[in-house]
Amino acid sequence: MSLQTVSDIPLLVSSENASSERRVTPSWTIGQLKAKLEPVTGIPPLSQKLILKLGSQQTVPIEAADEENTQLSSFPLAPYVEILVTDLRPPGARPNYTDPSAVPKYELPTAIYETKTDSVLAWKKANKLGRFDPDAPTILSSRLAGYASEVAEKGIEKGRRCRVGGEDAKRGEVMYVGEVEEIVKGQGEGGRGVWVGVKLDEPVGKNDGSLGGHRYWGKEGDAKFGVFVRPERVEVGEWPVLDDLEDMEEL
Question: Coil, strand, or helix at residue 75?
Fold first, then answer.
């Protein structure tokens, strides 16, 4: 537990990624303050620029030629004034503290998860649901066979013109027919079976022809022309590219 002296002054410390109240001792040097602010703001001392905001207009830079020997008492500190900490590093050199995807997350090992009695997995086992249903293999096999049969019956092949969901606005070209591992990873057993990848004529799709880093067609930077749908939603035929001007009267 830290002890505060009588002369400690409560200040508001703010930066791009943090804001908090801190008690500062005027006898600290600028160098000491910057060292204490690093774990608060995530900004290294040499990359910190400190500004003391005394009011809506008045600001005072906290800087000196010799920061290791210049005490904070040299500046007009007052209770609850704000110290603004600016990061002098180029944007590309700064850690992104607001991106949760970059934060390592704990994952319970499968072996331990399977032994727990209060999990969704345990509930499925008890109620014989999903893959624990005795009839699950038969149901799954029947569903997969149905997808394959529909592809054959409809003549869905790569390169064929089609429309999706019966919508004229969603015409395009079949670019892929088969299983999509990325969908299986996301949906489990429900994602198995044949999917049809379609490059729409207009950028009203969900992807650019790639999923989870695996590219099925196109190139990086393409607009979102792509969708992956089940065969039941695909209708192949001579669907020409829509001409936005075909209904306009000739002048």
Answer: coil
Determine contact, residues 77/11, Cβ cutoff 8 Å.
Answer: yes
**Residue 220 to residues 121, 211, 223: CA-CA distances in angstroms?**
38, 11, 9
**Whose CA is closest to 71, among 24, 29, 25?**
29
DSSP 197: E
- Which residue in the block uniquely carries the two structure tokens 């072996």? 111
DSSP label at residue 242:
P
- pLDDT digits over 75-99, tens only? 999 999 999 999 999 988 888 777 7
Residue 150 identity (one-letter amino acid): E
What does DSSP assign to residue 98? T
Is 0.85 surpassed by the pTM of this model? Answer: no
Find, among 21, 23, 82, 76, the residue nearest to 53 by Cα.
82
Question: What confidence tens digit (pLDDT) does each residue in 189-247 have?
Answer: 889 999 999 999 999 899 999 999 999 999 988 999 999 999 999 999 998 887 654 54
CA 241 – CA 244 distance, rounded (Å): 9
